[in-house]
Amino acid sequence: MIGKQTKGRGFRKLLDYLESSENAKLIGGNMSGRNSRELAKEFRLSRQLNPDAERVVYHVSLSAAKDDVISEDKWCEIGNRYMKEMGFDANQFVIFRHQNTDDDHVHIAASRIRMDTSLLVDDSWDYVRSEKVLRQIEIDYELVQVQGSRERLNRTQSTGQFRRIKREQEEYEAGKRDTPPDKSIKQLVQQTIDNASVDHPQMPELIMRLQQSGISVRTGFTRNGKSKGISYEKDGIAFSGTQLGAAYTFPGLQKHLLIDYQPKRDDARIEQLLNNPVGRTVLNQQPINAIADFIKQSAAESTLAEVLPQVIEQLYGHQQQLEEGRTTLGDLRALITPKEQRLSSQKAVDAIADFIEQLAAESTLVETLPQLIEQLSASQQQLEQGRTTLDDLRPAIAPKEQQLSSQTTVDAIAQNKAQPLTTDKPKLKENSSAELYKYYSTELQNLLVTDRDKEIANRALLDNRQVEEVEEIILASPARWTTEEAKALVLIANNQLVSNRKQKQSSPQFTPPSEDEKLWPALKNYLTQQRGISSTLVETLHLKGLGYIDQQRKVVFIKRSLNGEKSGTLVWDTPKQDDRCSQNSENTQSRQSWFHINLGRETDDKIERVFLCDSPIDALTLAHMDMNAHKGLPPVKTMYLVVDDPDNLPLEFLKNISRIGLAFSKDDQGKETAKTVLKLLPQSKQLPPNNHSWNEDLLEILHIEQQKRRQQQRGFSR
After folding, report:
1. Are residues 215 and 347 in the same domain?
2. String of DSSP letters for 293-322
């Protein structure tokens, strides 16, 4: 079964066509109208719910294969199921059957405006989703199975290969062969490329992965520096990209497999890999790497409490190789053994285990643990300086207010537009289309290529650039759009921009609550002294206007869109009972906003890791622990995002992140939230704390280090 989808603006012309075609018949849907005039009038009901929406008409044709015989009732079942699985479960739609061609087919006309929420049905990846739905319908209704467009991107087998596989399959089924048919070299190469590109890596990364899998890669370039082809070789057999299929050519890798390729960034690295190929991946025999790999492989199966004895045994085996430093493995065991004796429940050991598990691929154990302890010791010294308890938070505010009553409130910081805690946009050096594309693509690397280029067009239009100039910028995309496709993308962005302006004119702009600046020292003292969070993070949070005490004496944290635009407020009004915040619905402009901070050393703005947690306090805590472990900023861009509502997640963004940690609290609410998010993001991994929250884990570690330091001081004094 083949499905073809289009979107438009007017219902009447479409309905007239569907009704007037030869042998056309209205067979189903959920509308009462019986002709095009009545149906068009009925569709106005949904239009009135969202009058600013542009392309509200959804039209899909479903064509059966020639050998399929489908009754009218079955067509209705298929149409209803298709619409439901495509997200049109609360939308108006009508089904017409046409039998005026060789193939039997139906047309479905629908409104993209949902009757329950007035919002448009999400059309992200609708062509891919449509093919998946139709493939399953073919199976369930025993219809002829049609090859999907993605499958057609692979070159079919030769006649000889087909006969061999058929013969070997028959022998296997007859018991004359012990194993199923072997895949051809071509199929193995195709499968390896598919596996290596599943997370849409950059082109050099893809080539390196293929080399590590035993596949040689060759690329050629024209005098102008543009690629003229790519070829692959395995076991002495070479294939051009065209021989493997359209998805495996150099442009096809970018268009169909969404490989990220930017010539200026990647060409030198590609040339280096081609001249010095990376060999097959083998087990690293370096002692520290071996231990780190061991922990990484075991993390999903057991806790550190179970793995620790084996780790210690291996560490002793390699102790002689690590005599260069004073932080010996014996010292490491000395740090761990008292902790095991004092805490029979091994809570703190488990906390370190979970933390190491997340960082095992990025830093070695011997580097990470001493750095963590060293940094925690420094933080403990700050902790010892103040004794303001949680119950003393509000009494601590009053004296500060009296001492500084003459100071004026500084509202400018609170009212300034927030910028994300990450690197700034690259400076624009040239006015070329390629440079402009790079300039406008800042922080959009995690979006799918179509969504990213729409947003780039939107940003360029917001800069008052001419439509023709924006089209040239889009043509510089690695997706290699045609001129017509680029014009269509810019048109969509322009229409969306007009719609957004209308909405902004009709809705009030978000204004963050005014800060009571003279109360900031009390809040800073509490976060650093009583919660153990580094003063660097706390100060940065305040400078960005993302956390402070407002004029109503409430602790507020500012929610932002993923692009950094402030659009909501979280209020922390129960610090004694819970770290979670409540949303101030009266002062929140958009649901598409969250409290989040971004950290990382890489100049690339692409987010590669995400921690999801319950509260801003835990987000700051996780960032603090991450920085301590790496003795500075994390090596990759990392986002720490607060989930105040599991039904309101940036799913399209998160689905493209391979490393997501679910660091929710250990209470019933945190467990339920983690369970819900895990269903939505199956690639994520649960990282629960050992105590109620990650902040409690941090304070426990700081307390243990304080006790250890005191014992050492007593030993020196003797």
Report:
1. no
2. HHHHHHHTTS-HHHHHHHHHHHHHHTGGGG
Quote the CA–CA distance of 421 and 641 in Å, as a whole number: 12
Give me the half-sphere count of Cα atoms (radius 13 Å) on the Cβ side of residue 193: 32
Bridge partners, 310 (sequence order): none
Query: What does residue 556 show for φ and ψ, rounded to 5 degrees?
Result: -120, 145
Are 220 and 127 within one domain?
Answer: no
Rounded Cα distance between 449 and 158, Å, is 34
Instruction: Examine residue 587 and state whether it is found in any structural domain, yes or no.
Output: no
| Lowest mean pLDDT, pick from 77-81, 290-294, 581-585, 624-628 | 290-294
Q: Which of 243, 275, 307 is the last residue of a domain?
A: 275
Q: What is the mean pLDDT of residues 280-297?
A: 42
pLDDT band at 641; cut points 50, 70, 90: very high
Backbone angles phi, psi at 11, to 5 degrees: -85, -35
Q: Which residue has the higher pLDDT, 603 or 197?
A: 197
Q: In what order do the strands lie in the sheet with 105-111?
A: 2-8, 57-63, 105-111, 93-98, 25-29
Distance CA 331, CA 340 (A): 15
- Listed range (85-99, 234-248, 370-384, 447-461) with the worst mean pLDDT: 370-384
d(CA 207, CA 212): 9
Give dist(CA 199, CA 107) in Å, integer: 35
Give the number of other CB atoms < 10 A from CB of residue 45.
13
Task: Note whether residue 392 is domain-resident.
Answer: no
Span 375-398, pLDDT tens digits: 555 545 544 444 333 344 444 444
- Do 143 and 196 lie in one domain? The reply is no
Q: Are 420 and 443 in contact (CB under 8 A)?
A: yes
Q: How confident is the model at residue 685 (pLDDT cuts 50, 70, 90)?
A: very high
Q: Tell me which of 462, 485, 506 is where a domain ends.
A: 506
Whether 453 is in a domain gets the answer: yes
Interior/surface letters 196-223, b for 16+ CB within 10 angstroms, e for the rest: bbeebbbbbbbbbbbbebebebebeeee
pTM: 0.38
Q: Domain tally for the chain?
A: 4
Q: Are the beta carbons of 605 and 442 closer than 8 angstroms?
A: yes
Segments of 421-576 assigned E as strands: 547-549, 555-560, 566-572
Specify which of 91-95, 423-427, 477-481 reaches the highest per-range mean pLDDT: 91-95
Contact 538, 620 (CB under 8 A): yes
653 located within any domain = no
Note the maximum CA span of the chain. Answer: 103
Cβ neighbours for 438, distance < 8 A, ≥ 6 positions apart: 262, 426
* % of the chain with per-residue pLDDT over 90: 27
224 falls in which pLDDT band (50, 70, 90)?
low
210 to 234, 262, 267, 555: CA distances (angstroms): 10, 19, 17, 51
Identity at 568, one-letter amino acid code? G
Residue predicted with more confidence, 167 or 405: 167
Mean pLDDT of the chain: 77
Residue with tokens 């199956």: 682
